[in-house]
Amino acid sequence: MEIAALGIDVGSTTVKMVAVNRAGALVWDYLEPVAPRVSRQVDDFLAKLGAKIGSLAEIPLVATGYGRNLVQQARQSKTEISCHAHGVFQELGHGGTLIDIGGQDSKVIVIGARGRILDFAMNDKCAAGTGRFLENSAARMQIPVAEMGAVALTATEEFTITSTCTVFAESEIISLLAQGVAVEPILMGLHRALVKRVAAMVRSVGLVPPLLLSGGVVKNPAIRKVIADETGEEVFVPTHPQLMGALGAALFALKLAD
Question: What is the pLDDT of residues 96-146, one digit of tens each?
Fold first, then answer.
């Protein structure tokens, strides 16, 4: 296995590391929940990879994500905006409008035909429009996060969630359940409420087709469907949407390779 560079994305809920070859193709990846001591966790990641290929001393590592400045082993750190754009452009081969929904924030990035960032908007001050919005709701409704989308898509109707605030939405859910409203239409309404917040960000920068998606949250099929509904656009998703930030970081690291 040829490895020329490494990228790591330290998110609010997971840490992702990838390796690329000299052509920039992804050849190895590893993902696990974020640990309290990120630097020690990165050492463990590198040890796992080192056990496969031997010494990593000359292989450059670039960090991105929520906790990028905690990665002491990295030669450089890069913003999430630049890394997600770089990774998705490499993976899909074209520009467009990228929606990245993570656990703690969401981003909309307009990417030009040659991969250059033309504009962006970011929500990192409120849980609405992020994976945390669904996580909190899942806990209240006692449904695993990984199953929320599939369950929501079985709904024959949709109940509107009027609040986009996570705290107030939770109170609304409690009230609806107490009134005997079924889980499925509530879930569909929750997905709609999240996407409407993201769609407002898309409108703020202007939608330049095609519409691209990244981040762990877009693995949820209901999220993908509602985004397509709200924007009227077909959505394009990379094979590994959760790894795009780490891939972009690895591509920046490739420029540092000897």
Answer: 999 999 877 899 999 999 999 999 998 865 656 677 788 888 877 889 989
Q: Which of 91, 90, 8 is nearest to 49 (CA)?
A: 8
CB distance 205 to 108 below 8 Å: yes
Q: Where are the alpha helices (DSSP H) in the chain?
A: 38-53, 80-92, 131-141, 145-152, 166-178, 183-205, 221-231, 244-254
CA distances from 175 to 26, 36, 85, 169 (A): 47, 35, 40, 10
List, for residues 54-84, the tens digit of each pLDDT value: 778 789 999 999 899 989 999 999 999 999 9
Residue 25 belongs to some domain of the structure: yes
Alpha carbon dihedral 62, 66, 67, 69, in 10-degree steps, equals 60
CA gap 225, 129 in Å, rounded: 15
Residue 192 is assigned to a structural domain of this protein: no
User: Model pTM?
Assistant: 0.91
Range of the structural domain that residue 39 is part of: 5-84+243-254
Question: In this structure, what are the phi and psi dihedrals at residue 200, rounded to the nearest 5 degrees?
Answer: -65, -35
Which residue's entry shows tokens 């001393």?
A: 57
If one counts every other C-beta atom within 10 angstroms of the C-beta of residue 46, the result is 18
187 falls within a domain: no
* Residue 47 forms part of a structural domain: yes
How many domains does the chain divide into? 1
Listed in sequence order, the residues at least 6 apart from 68 whose beta carbon sits closer than 8 Å to its beta carbon are 8, 9, 10, 74, 77, 78
Residue ranges of alpha helices (H) inside 23-163 are 38-53, 80-92, 131-141, 145-152
